[in-house]
Amino acid sequence: MFSHARWEVPAIAVGALALLVGGCGSNDKKSSSTPAAGQSQSAAPAQTLKLEADEDGGLYFKPSKLTGKAGAVTFVMTNPKSTGKEHGIAVKGNGVDQDGPVVKPGKTATLTATLKPGRYTFYCNYENHAKRGMKGTLTVQ
């Protein structure tokens, strides 16, 4: 019986040591992982273009002309409370046709699209607002 207990103690000690060693990890903030295939290690943040609907309820954006750089572009469209109308944001051109959300007065709509150099139309995608003039031009360089 004594010889049997002699082997249990080292087995328990080995098991505890394995847990301690296995649980140890580097908390070194310099370590990094390799990105998966098709992912870049440091993606550039989207550039933000801000615009707003007319605060008096007119069917146009301010500003009506925007410029940006190729890549990810985020449109942030503010719909002031005083508009009394729902408005949205969308972008079209150069093979891109993306609709963002339509929001109530006092809310903000956000749309992100990847754009190549060229000219695009941004517009309100709520009802017939774009047909009635609520659109603008984006030049991407």
Fold blueprint:
Layout: H1 2-23, E1 47-53, E2 61-62, E3 65-68, E4 71-79, E5 87-93, E6 96-103, E7 107-115, E8 118-123, E9 135-140
Parallel strand pairs: 1-4, 3-9
Antiparallel strand pairs: 1-2, 4-7, 5-6, 5-8, 8-9
Features:
141 residues; alpha+beta; 5-stranded mixed β-sheet; 1 helix; 9 strands; disordered N terminus
Description:
With 141 residues, the protein is an alpha+beta fold. The protein has 1 helix and 9 strands, in the order αβββββββββ. The strands form 2 sheets. The protein has a 5-stranded mixed β-sheet with strand order 3-9-8-5-6, with no helix packed on it. Strand 5 (87-93) and strand 6 (96-103) form a beta hairpin. The relative contact order is 0.18. The model is unreliable at 1-5 and 12-42 (pLDDT under 50).
Helix content: 10-25%
**How many strand elements?**
9
Sequence of secondary-structure elements:
HEEEEEEEEE
Based on CA inertia axes, which overall geometry fits? globular
Major sheet size, sense and barrel closure:
5 strands, mixed
N/C terminus separation: 84 Å
Sheet with the most strands: spatial strand order: 3-9-8-5-6
Q: Mean pLDDT, nearest integer? A: 81
Main structural class: alpha+beta
Number of helices: 1
Low-pLDDT ranges: 1-5, 12-42
In terms of DSSP E residues, the strand content is 35-45%
Radius of gyration of CA atoms, rounded to a whole number? 28 Å
